[in-house]
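hey can u check if this looks right to u? its 281 residues, i copy pasted from the old doc so theres a chance i mangled smth
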Amino acid sequence: MATPVSRYSTRNPRKKDMDPARRPKALPQILKEINEATAPVFCRATDYPAGWHIEPHNHARHQLIYAVKGVMVVQAEIGRWVVPPTRGIWMQAGMTHEIRCIEEVHMRSLLVAPDAATRLPAETQTVGISPLLRELICAAMDVHQPYAAGTRDGRVMRLILDELRALPVLPLHLQMPSDPRLLRICERLQQRLNDSSTMADWGRRLAVDVKTIQRLFVKETGMTFGQWRQQARLLRALELLASGEKVIHVALALGYDSPSAFATMFRKQFGQTPSQFFAEH
């Protein structure tokens, strides 16, 4: 598998065979890490090949996970998100998460100190990336740390913090339940999203009353059984469409009666047809 390429790479070819954990760091890299540790906010840029998996990890800072190119699937204990360009994930500090790259991904992450500003997003969620914030993130890649508050760099980073307070929340999240009975249903549906089993079917399999299943779904996921299954199908559809699958194949694979039925549900959820959604990229 190809190695992700970071614009901040400091690899020394003469030491390429050395264990990375023991390889001495170049002075510019050491100074950069010291400066970042004290900065209210900084940008990190890394490119990943299609299929790349970033192992579970967490950060001491909040992170805006954003890609100028490519689609990511972000998984944490509390749920799963699909993140195309023009969207991002606000990841709370300390939350363990992993990332799968559906296609080639050019990630541009903002890492924000928890005390950098007031009224930052209070929970992990999918957010919209405005054209202004996208350009500010691109500008932040060229900001040299440390930056002074009254300089152009300082004003750029201050404006980024202002924009982070106004991030619009988007419905690209799939909340996972903790109840083992519901978890069994959800894991099965994610494996076979064309499964048309009803709550009554699941009630018989699990020896649980249908009303109990419905009540637990709403309590633990904020959705009914039908809404949860629809959301799971739509998020999977984003992955498949991002991989180049045709709408008709995606619709049939996910159990919709026709491409038009799928397109109607997609538009109802995201406010756009599939072609319009991906044309924004």
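The radius of gyration is 21 Å.
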